[in-house]
Specification:
This protein is α+β, with helices and mostly antiparallel strands. 21% of the residues lie in helices and 38% in strands. The chain has two domains: 30-116; 119-223, no CATH class.
Amino acid sequence: MKRWLTGAVVAVLLLSACATKPEPKEAVPVETGSGWTVHTAIMTPVVTEEEKTVFARASEDSDGSFTPVAVLASQVVSGTNYAYLCLKETDASADWEIVKVYAALDGGASIEHEAVIDPSALKTTDSGIKAGLAGGWEVNPNRANAVVLEPEVNTAFAKGTESFSEAVLSPLVLLAESETTYLILAQGTRMEDASEQIYAAAVQKNSDEPAAVSILDLVSYLSE
């Protein structure tokens, strides 16, 4: 009898826990200002065939080699503006850039603006991250794994952001690293309203210290 009662009590407790556990909200697009809307599930797919075609048409006369890896946001105008996250490589350097591309209604496309994401001078909506203090940044030391993150980078990201309660984060790309820190761009679904944001996270490589996380000021990169 006692065993039966104990089992019943456990079952009741488990059912109560399940009943009070909040259901995850479905992610929704959010306007960041100036009509830009952050995309949901940015990396699924990474870049659609249509978006690749638009970017190829816009960048055919550009200096340097662009690799678009994601479309972070879009803006409906007379046509559509796209915010591409790109790796731009020249003979002398490689940088992550946010590239604004205009796709006209007649099928034409052009690059309207380029902004380098400087790890030492990140544009964020608050002062929660001071990645520049780490110093010694190297952009994409292992470029082949900048998007498909290596296990140690994923592990550090998961450990560093596990206590971040503002949003559920998914890493997008490894922007840069220093001797002690990974700087990772991530997509986050905010717990408060299920809206999508782009975050930057400075994650310690060999430490249990929580990551410094801030929302990227995407509009500033698109209009600086």
